[in-house]
Amino acid sequence: AKARHFRWEVSNMFWSPDCEEKVVIGINGQFPGPTIRAKAGDTIVVHLKNGLHTEGVVIHWHGIRQIGTPWADGTASISQCAINPEETFTYRFVVDKPGTYFYHGHYGMQRAAGLYGSLIVDVADGEEEPFKYDGELNLLLSDWYHESIYTQMVGLSSNPFRWIGEPQSLLINGRGQFNCSLAAAHTPGAKQCAGAGNRHCAPVILPVLPNKTYRLRVASTTSLASLNLAVGNHKLTVVEADGNYVEPFDVDDIDIYSGDSYSVLLTTDQDTSANYWVSVGVRGRQPKTAPALAVLNYRPNRASRLPASAPPATPAWDDFARSKAFTYRILGRGTPPPPATSDRRIELLNTQNRMGGVVKWSINNMSMVLPATPYLGSLKMGLRSALPSAARPSDTFGRGYDVTRPPANPNTTVGDNVYVLAHNATVDVVLQNANALARNVSEVHPWHLHGHDFWVLGYGDGAFRGDAGDAAALNLRNPPLRNTAVIFPYGWTAIRFVSDNPGVWAFHCHIEPHLHMGMGVIFAEAVDRVGELPKAAVSCGATATALMAGAGAG
Ligand code: C2O
Ligand code: CU
């Protein structure tokens, strides 16, 4: 294992991700940011300089558990103070497990402004993956808005509410096409994109040789969109999800929610004289965004030869039965089974409500607000008055709640949002979806846990029927280990994890505007066992004041 050092500077810059020039947040002049590639067991050291002129920044390493280094998790107001303009913070952490990961901004809505990149961990020397392949292709998927994140954030907190709407384009490795199609001949009403020219939005070309097997690494860091990926004429075999191996299964296409990552194997066994489309389209919400296309280029065909056939069609956005069928097929392979029983069950009801007239998402009727003093510092230093409120969140929401109707009480509150977990407890969380404020609306929410992988024990429709019903029917035999799990409209999802990683961890919906509107909670796990916090992680808010008082006294 070795240490890999990076010097990064984050800055705003002009860029044309979908051929329209906008401002993006880039790293070292690149968008998306540089790909980190490492081997399991390596230590990653990123010296991150904030080159934004007037706002803080942090970077979260999505899927990396940060065992023993909770202050390097990169969540503003949770694991650290945001890095001020012109200042540098050093992230140092071990990538202990091979897999497909990514990193992204975790302050305000900076992820949606383009602050993201890939993080790929190969097996350690001498180790082998449980499947074989000849080559690898990496696809980082995102969605892109033409409005700035500042306009978006003002809209979300305005009364009347202004929703951000659907994205203008979908991006593959930071490239998309707005208002034109690479496959216009097959797309009624679309105009053909003007050829080469703009290097920022040139089509993504994936070069392959015939009769080989490729590992496609696919991760989604979308702000809003749930996606589906298909490759014309080719089957896909799913082998990895969120950095964990899964029992291989064959599909024509995969669904991928924000925060998910997959590896799929693809064999180049089709007519070698042609190229093929890779198509990425929207699912789960009525799409207003054209699919993103890339070209699977069978060498030695010219890359510029566009596939003659139509791109594969994205399955109907509202075919949730199909989405569920895909999701339910994902099962663990060689992963340890979960403990047979749990010590605690936390039931989290997701509702849409209002606070002071402003629309919020809340969990057991508390909407998450992020305090000036990061939770890790305030909890470790015992500064409870620095939490957003004294009100503790509840482990249940009460059985009678009717998930099929808008909330009877449309108003939500502020709490401290903190679930205190004992060390080494087995914790079950049941995420319960419900109707939003408007009638007959219930949305998809992909929930992501920091600091852990969890077993996904089961999914169901309607209200979770506790011990008598659903709890007895969970999969304890071969559930997949993941770090992100979706809840389907009006449904529930049950997960289990062991609180064996002292720290303070965010658990939230990975849809950026939903998180911004309060859709998350904090798990504080054996904080007394957390090692000494780096000063730079606590040099703000009440922890800074406490540190200065301590320094003065000393
Ligand atoms: Cu990738 Cu807290 O998120
Ligand atoms: Cu959500």
Automatic annotation (TrEMBL):
<dbReference type="InterPro" id="IPR011706">
    <property type="entry name" value="Cu-oxidase_C"/>
</dbReference>
<feature type="domain" description="Plastocyanin-like">
    <location>
        <begin position="10"/>
        <end position="122"/>
    </location>
</feature>
<keyword id="KW-0964">Secreted</keyword>
<dbReference type="InterPro" id="IPR034259">
    <property type="entry name" value="CuRO_1_AAO"/>
</dbReference>
<dbReference type="InterPro" id="IPR008972">
    <property type="entry name" value="Cupredoxin"/>
</dbReference>
<keyword id="KW-0732">Signal</keyword>
<dbReference type="InterPro" id="IPR034267">
    <property type="entry name" value="CuRO_3_AAO"/>
</dbReference>
<keyword id="KW-0325">Glycoprotein</keyword>
<keyword id="KW-1015">Disulfide bond</keyword>
<comment type="subunit">
    <text>Dimer.</text>
</comment>
<dbReference type="GO" id="GO:0042542">
    <property type="term" value="P:response to hydrogen peroxide"/>
</dbReference>
<keyword id="KW-0677">Repeat</keyword>
<keyword id="KW-0479">Metal-binding</keyword>
<dbReference type="InterPro" id="IPR045087">
    <property type="entry name" value="Cu-oxidase_fam"/>
</dbReference>
<dbReference type="Pfam" id="PF07731">
    <property type="entry name" value="Cu-oxidase_2"/>
</dbReference>
<dbReference type="Pfam" id="PF07732">
    <property type="entry name" value="Cu-oxidase_3"/>
</dbReference>
<dbReference type="GO" id="GO:0005576">
    <property type="term" value="C:extracellular region"/>
</dbReference>
<dbReference type="InterPro" id="IPR011707">
    <property type="entry name" value="Cu-oxidase-like_N"/>
</dbReference>
<keyword id="KW-0560">Oxidoreductase</keyword>
<dbReference type="GO" id="GO:0008447">
    <property type="term" value="F:L-ascorbate oxidase activity"/>
</dbReference>
<dbReference type="GO" id="GO:0009506">
    <property type="term" value="C:plasmodesma"/>
</dbReference>
<dbReference type="InterPro" id="IPR017760">
    <property type="entry name" value="L-ascorbate_oxidase_pln"/>
</dbReference>
<dbReference type="GO" id="GO:0005507">
    <property type="term" value="F:copper ion binding"/>
</dbReference>
<dbReference type="GO" id="GO:0050687">
    <property type="term" value="P:negative regulation of defense response to virus"/>
</dbReference>
<dbReference type="GO" id="GO:0009615">
    <property type="term" value="P:response to virus"/>
</dbReference>
<feature type="domain" description="Plastocyanin-like">
    <location>
        <begin position="409"/>
        <end position="526"/>
    </location>
</feature>
<dbReference type="InterPro" id="IPR002355">
    <property type="entry name" value="Cu_oxidase_Cu_BS"/>
</dbReference>
<dbReference type="InterPro" id="IPR033138">
    <property type="entry name" value="Cu_oxidase_CS"/>
</dbReference>
<dbReference type="InterPro" id="IPR001117">
    <property type="entry name" value="Cu-oxidase_2nd"/>
</dbReference>
<feature type="domain" description="Plastocyanin-like">
    <location>
        <begin position="138"/>
        <end position="300"/>
    </location>
</feature>
<comment type="similarity">
    <text>Belongs to the multicopper oxidase family.</text>
</comment>
<protein>
    <recommendedName>
        <fullName>L-ascorbate oxidase</fullName>
        <ecNumber>1.10.3.3</ecNumber>
    </recommendedName>
</protein>
<comment type="function">
    <text>May be involved in a redox system involving ascorbic acid.</text>
</comment>
<dbReference type="Pfam" id="PF00394">
    <property type="entry name" value="Cu-oxidase"/>
</dbReference>
<keyword id="KW-0186">Copper</keyword>
